[in-house]
UniProtKB/TrEMBL annotation:
It is a multi-pass membrane protein. It comes from Orycteropus afer afer. The lineage of its organism: Eukaryota, Metazoa, Chordata, Craniata, Vertebrata. The keyword Membrane applies. One of its GO terms (cellular component) is plasma membrane. This is Olfactory receptor.
Length: 304
């Protein structure tokens, strides 16, 4: 049941209150956000229009780029607009909506990374059965399960947020609505809710990170039986995936697996995984993947 609240809107503190620094924030994050949309859209269009990028790995890469674009859009536009406004207010309903979509697309990215690791495991460790195991029907079902799982996670998060009563200060010391900064304003003991958050978001982050490390460890161990050329290609792909996993899960684990306390670096850590990671993912995959680079060159050269 939703508890009674007297606060109808919140004030987002943002990254800084300094007027000159806010102008810098506006310029930098506008450029980063536009580049994020550009790169991820470029990857999605290339995969959808290229006849050579029809495998399961690119199927999941499409969903990763889609999740990245949406994940960044849940936070970046408001951060950019708030950098030019004096009163950075957000209504209660808008705050809850942002929290829900933020966790929906963030969790979707987690599940897609797991599916990409599973795809690489099958491709490298069971190559003769790869096309049978990773058929288009199986890939579609896995994508649907990822969406369902992300929906369950984000629903659990919004359920916890709706239990928080707000009857006093309404200034959120952050640039987005998330459960940790909201708990700082709640008129109740948030110990139990924080335990639920740690057991939900925290456990999801840690278990997914460990599962991914184990899967890539198994993949790397199995490479000892491959040819030198096969090892080089597999190592290149796995290295790319591991870079993405570390830069995404590191900040998430830092934020969601600790007591309800705030640190001065929280907002910068959040910037890294909410805005930095969605920008870096397509760059990492395109720069280290010859198939995607060649398809992009062919597609855009023909368009031009």
């Amino acid at each position: 049941m939703v508890m009674n609240k007297t606060v109808t809107d919140f004030i987002l503190f943002g990254l800084t209150q300094d007027t000159e620094k806010q102008k810098v924030v506006f310029g930098i994050f506008l450029i980063l956000y536009l580049l994020t949309l550009l790169w991820n859209t470029l990857v999605m269009v290339t995969i959808k229009t290229s006849a050579t990028l029809g495998g399961p790995m690119y199927f999941f890469l499409f969903y990763l780029s889609f999740a990245d674009a949406c994940f960044s859009t849940t936070t970046a536009p408001r951060l950019i607009v708030d950098a030019l406004t004096q009163k950075k207010s957000i209504s209660y309903n808008e705050c809850m909506t942002q929290l829900f979509t933020f966790h929906l697309f963030g969790c979707m990215e987690v599940f897609v990374l797991i599916l990409m690791a599973f795809d690489r495991y099958v491709a490298i460790c069971k190559p003769l059965r790869y096309t049978t195991i990773m058929s288009q029907r199986v890939c579609n079902m896995l994508a649907i399960l990822a969406w369902v799982g992300a929906g369950i996670h984000s629903t659990a998060q919004i359920f916890l947020a709706l239990q928080l009563p707000f009857c006093g200060p309404n200034v959120i010391d952050h640039y987005l609505c998330d459960l940790q900064p909201l708990m700082q304003l709640a008129c109740m003991d948030t110990y139990v809710i924080n335990l639920l958050i740690v057991s939900n978001s925290g456990a999801l982050s840690i278990m997914s990170f460990i599962a991914l490390l184990i899967s890539y460890g198994v993949i790397l161990y199995s490479l000892r039986n491959h040819s030198a050329e096969g090892r080089r290609k597999a190592l290149s792909t796995c290295t790319t995936h591991l870079i993405v996993v570390v830069i995404f899960f590191g900040p998430c684990i830092f934020i969601y697996t600790r007591p309800p306390t705030s640190f001065s670096v929280d907002k910068m850590v959040a910037v890294f995984y909410t805005i930095g990671t969605p920008l870096l993912n397509p760059l990492i995959y395109t720069l280290r993947n010859e198939g995607v680079k060649n398809a992009m060159k062919k597609l855009w050269c023909s368009k031009l």
